[in-house]
């Protein structure tokens, strides 16, 4: 079925347009009235919006089918038409609701709305946020509501806290997400405190030069590094001298989100009884679809926090909020460069707000 939206100054005018294009067999699916133009909702011209549809010609499908299969073709075509019609109606209804929502906003709220869309925030989430914002009495109040709403969406950061040493923290994530560099940044940060003993463990023996890279960092920071190849070796290391350390960071092999075999190997190395925290690293220079797949597949490793990487390589920062739509784990830190340990910060909402709002002119 072919479905299209028509706008006219009255019903008669709109019906004329429909018949002229779709013919007399067209059917009316939905209608609504709205005002266009005007000033602050007054003096606008009333118009009619009509959703109309018409059955498309199925003669080609009939000719292509054998004589005894006409009924099957008709039934299949009818089912497809019904599903397609439902989808288009749902899309148009959502579009109408959003258009009406935006038309009701004042200029300042519309600017905030457009800004969030340009940052890549999902439209349904933008509508929820701006609905709160539009209740503000003036521009300053609206901006404060926006900041408060975004803070709540981001949630409070959960940084690493050493409670019962040795506190073991593992980093997991796909290949190229920046696990080794992030571990070096965290280790260097904690090693700045002379009262804290920091150790490194790496199980990333699959990637070429991975051990050498972490060994270079450990030499620079002047902290010990142990290489393990199994869960048993990891347990033995933690039962040895490392049991006297305050915090131990564990590097793990990278894996594609769809490599079940490699994910199984990582799961086989990590001993949950010896780990206090598992941070899943998500790179913001990836498409949201890929980020969600990484989160879904790596959930089998039971991470309890999200560490965001490569914010400096992200074209837009709306995914800081989009991820919260389906991720209930708190953010811990975010990284934005290669400098160790400088390019790492707490994922506190106050630190993330500038990425989303930038130097927005209030």
From TrEMBL:
This is Flagellar biosynthesis protein FlhF. One of its GO terms (molecular function) is GTPase activity. NCBIfam families: FlhF. Residues 59-80 are annotated as: Disordered. GO terms for cellular component: plasma membrane. It is a peripheral membrane protein. It comes from Halarsenatibacter silvermanii. GO terms for biological process: bacterial-type flagellum organization; protein transport; SRP-dependent cotranslational protein targeting to membrane. Residues 165-304 form the AAA+ ATPase domain. It holds the Pfam family SRP54. Necessary for flagellar biosynthesis. May be involved in translocation of the flagellum. Belongs to the GTP-binding SRP family. Residues 166-358 form the SRP54-type proteins GTP-binding domain. PANTHER family: FLAGELLAR BIOSYNTHESIS PROTEIN FLHF, SIGNAL RECOGNITION PARTICLE RECEPTOR SUBUNIT ALPHA. It is found in: Cell membrane. InterPro entries: AAA+_ATPase (IPR003593), FlhF (IPR020006), FlhF__GTPase_dom (IPR047040), P-loop_NTPase (IPR027417), SRP54_GTPase_dom (IPR000897). Keywords: Bacterial flagellum biogenesis, Bacterial flagellum protein export, Cell membrane, Cell projection, Cilium, Flagellum, GTP-binding, Membrane, Nucleotide-binding, Protein transport, Transport. It comes from the Bacteria.
């Amino acid at each position: 079925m072919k479905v299209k939206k028509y706008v006219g100054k009255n019903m008669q005018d709109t019906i004329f347009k429909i018949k002229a294009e779709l013919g007399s067999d067209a059917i009316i699916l939905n209608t609504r009235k709205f005002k266009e133009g005007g000033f602050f909702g007054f003096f606008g011209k009333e118009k009619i919006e009509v959703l109309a549809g018409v059955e498309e010609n199925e003669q080609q499908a009939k000719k292509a089918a054998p004589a005894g299969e006409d009924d099957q073709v008709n039934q299949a075509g009818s089912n497809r038409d019904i599903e397609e019609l439902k989808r288009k109606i749902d899309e148009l209804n959502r579009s109408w609701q959003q258009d009406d929502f935006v038309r009701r906003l004042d200029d300042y709220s519309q600017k905030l709305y457009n800004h969030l869309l340009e940052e890549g925030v999902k439209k349904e989430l933008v509508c929820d946020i701006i609905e709160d914002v539009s209740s503000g009495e003036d521009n300053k109040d609206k901006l404060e509501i926006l900041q408060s709403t975004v803070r709540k969406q981001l949630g409070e950061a959960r940084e690493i806290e050493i409670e019962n040493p040795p506190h073991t923290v593992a980093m997991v994530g796909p290949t190229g997400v920046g696990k080794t560099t992030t571990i070096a940044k965290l280790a260097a940060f904690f090693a700045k405190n002379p009262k804290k003993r920091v150790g490194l463990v790496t199980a990333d023996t699959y990637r070429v030069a991975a051990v050498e890279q972490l060994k270079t960092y450990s030499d620079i920071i002047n902290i010990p590094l142990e290489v393990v190849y199994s869960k048993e070796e990891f347990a033995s290391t933690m039962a040895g001298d490392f049991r006297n350390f305050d915090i131990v960071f564990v590097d793990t092999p990278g894996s594609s989100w769809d490599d079940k075999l490699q994910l199984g190997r990582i799961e086989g190395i990590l001993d949950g009884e010896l780990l206090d925290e598992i941070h899943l690293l998500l790179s913001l220079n990836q498409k949201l679809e890929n980020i969600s797949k990484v989160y879904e597949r790596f959930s089998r490793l039971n991470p309890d926090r999200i560490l965001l990487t490569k914010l400096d390589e992200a074209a837009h920062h709306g995914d800081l909020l989009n991820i919260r739509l389906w991720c209930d784990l708190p953010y811990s830190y975010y990284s934005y460069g290669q400098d160790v340990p400088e390019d790492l910060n707490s994922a506190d909402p106050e630190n993330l707000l500038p990425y989303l709002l930038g130097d927005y002119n209030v």
